[in-house]
């Protein structure tokens, strides 16, 4: 079981939330936006890979 | 049984973490729930391997004809994929996308189970 994946995503989420608040408080709104978008893309890449693995597994298992 | 408990624990933990990061970035919380679903299902699919053994057994019992068990298996697969995707969409409050996925899954399942229906009709036709 790959529990590390969930912890990794949650850690990225919390880190980005903190960074976002810090950057917004210091008046760098556009950098805060860029940070959150980058984090979103990174996490999206990881999750999409895993989802494709799962769907391929289902495909091979049930002969779809 | 052990793996079931682990799945429940992972789901609860992921839910708590989702709630934690939902306030600040809701999109990340949706991805986190998708990740949790993938982890849980990957673990659960290990058990589904025994289903393929059952399929092989049924195939030998029904004189090597695919018409009996293959549509059932395919319907289970289609149902699993449809359900996961639709519920993820519904979680992100995109009910229209969820309804579309549901509809696509239903149509695919009907298409897959056609050979079974045809063979049943042939059986009925042969009886009269």
Explain the overall architecture:
The complex is a heterodimer of chains A (64) and B (128). With 64 residues, chain A is mainly alpha-helical. Chain A has helices at 4-25, 29-62. Chain A has one domain (4-62). Chain A is 88% helix and 0% strand. Chain B folds into 2 domains: 1-48; 65-128. Chain B is built from 5 helices and no strands. Chain B has helices spanning 2-22, 26-61, 70-91, 95-112, 114-127. In chain B, helix 1 (2-22) packs antiparallel against helix 2 (26-61), helix 2 (26-61) packs antiparallel against helix 3 and helix 3 (70-91) packs antiparallel against helix 4. The longest helix of chain B is centred in the middle third of the chain and has 36 residues, at 26-61. The relative contact order of chain B is 0.08. The chains are: A mainly alpha (64), B mainly alpha (128).
- How far the N terminus sits from the C terminus of chain A, by CA atoms, comes to 25 Å
Summed up, the domain count of chain A is 1
Average pLDDT metric of chain A: 90
**Average pLDDT metric of chain B:** 87
Helix content estimate of chain B: over 70%
Distance between the termini of chain B: 50 Å
**What coarse outline of chain A follows from CA principal-axis ratios?**
elongated
Structural topology:
The complex is a heterodimer of chains A (64) and B (128).
Chain A: H1 4-25, H2 29-62
Helix pairs in contact in A: 1-2
Chain B: H1 2-22, H2 26-61, H3 70-91, H4 95-112, H5 114-127
Helix pairs in contact in B: 1-2, 2-3, 3-4
């Amino acid at each position: 079981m790959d529990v590390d994946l969930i912890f990794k995503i949650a850690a990225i989420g919390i880190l980005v939330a903190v960074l976002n608040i810090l950057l917004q408080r210091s008046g760098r709104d556009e950098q805060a936006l860029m940070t959150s978008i980058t984090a979103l893309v990174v996490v999206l890449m990881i999750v999409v890979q895993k989802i494709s693995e799962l769907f391929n597994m289902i495909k091979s298992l049930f002969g779809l | 049984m052990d793996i079931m408990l682990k799945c429940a624990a992972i789901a609860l933990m992921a839910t708590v973490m989702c709630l934690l990061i939902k306030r600040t970035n809701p999109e990340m919380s949706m991805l986190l729930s998708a990740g949790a679903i993938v982890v849980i299902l990957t673990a659960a699919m290990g058990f589904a391997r025994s289903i393929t053994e059952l399929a092989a057994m049924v195939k030998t019992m029904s004189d090597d004809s695919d018409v009996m068990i293959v549509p059932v298996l395919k319907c289970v697969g289609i149902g699993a994929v449809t359900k996961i995707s639709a519920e993820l969409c519904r979680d992100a409050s995109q009910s229209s996308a969820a309804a579309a996925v549901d509809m696509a899954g239903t149509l695919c399942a009907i298409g897959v189970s056609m050979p079974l229906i045809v063979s049943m009709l042939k059986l009925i036709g042969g009886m009269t």
